[in-house]
Request: fold
Amino acid sequence: MSGVTRPRVVYVSYDGAGEPLGRSQVVAYLVRLARSCDITLVSFEKDRAGRAETAALLREAGISWVPRSYHRRPPVLSTLWDVLVGARAVRRACRESGAEIVHVRSYVPALIALLAAWPGRPRWRLLFDIRGFWVDERVLAGVWKADSRLYRFTKRCERRFFAEADAVVTLTEVSVPRIREWLAPRQVPVRVIPTCAEVERFGDTAPGEGPRAVWCGSLGTVYRFDLAVRFAEALGLPFLVLTRQVEAARELLGGRDADVREVAHSEIAGELRPGDVGLCFYADGGELGNLGRAPTRVAEYLAAGMAVAITPRIGDMDALVAGNGLGVRIEDESEAGLATAAAAVLRLAADPEARARGQRLAAELFSVDDGAGSYLDLYRELQSGSTPKTGAVAERREPAGAATGAAK
Reply:
């Protein structure tokens, strides 16, 4: 694009670039953005395994990488230490790169950025990429109590992050009204960019001997793996569990037959087959716990040509899944209710038109190329100072292919 300078961005992630989540939801975007932007990534790595491979990948993409060690213990104090270390790293990265934008992925990076700018106003603009309402998600996970001092403190920090943001990215349409309330009376841009996947990698696997029920991803208190086990039985299908928490999954299965394995994220596409039924069940998140969620596994299930079963009130999933005939919501957990839902989703799993419809929507809504293009558009608005300050500016990203030309 003639006459347009490359945005200079410092991207801050508390997830490691070498972790599966970091690879799919940080590195995959940044590799594409680095074609049109000068990117410095500050990330917190949980171990050194694979660090040389990650460094080579980022170096090849032209991304400057500032890895810092993630500390687990003691609780809270270890995070505060990481915040202090991160603030120093971000301050230096901004100075050396001449950053115009600091893009923070969720709440801890937002605190790092604000501390890096202290005591004055930063010269760069802050892009607050919320990735869900993290404070309330911690309560849902059972990590914090809603009446604790830590919860109240982080809620105050949350309001400060929104108050300081020059732009906000959220994963879901349903979260925008609440974000607008917290931003008021400021009318900074709010963009909806759901979690994306490399959808072109999915859907080429040939159907197997028969459909399976599939759980792909983490276990823990925010998830309803117990419901997944019951629903797999109601489906009467073989049960495949792909998770890093293999021993925990086997324990929760209680002796029930299932294929439980850990596979590398790069191999997930080869494990999902058209006609399978993908399960995505969360615990009830209250008002905010699940409002901002956009599970990557649902995008991957649909891209693979699978029908899906979800629990209600997970971000935009109700409208996407039920509204487009791509799967079922489990609202009645009785044996009869599960049997009815199982019969309905099995019909969809066997319907080639439904599978094709899901794959088309996955390509339109969840392509990482288009997600990166939407971030590039926002970077350029922030760079130029052309972001609107009044009126309704909450926008969904453009349809597939509309914003990626300059990023290629």
Q: What stands out?
A: The domain at 8-196+367-407 is CATH 3.40.50.2000 (Rossmann fold).
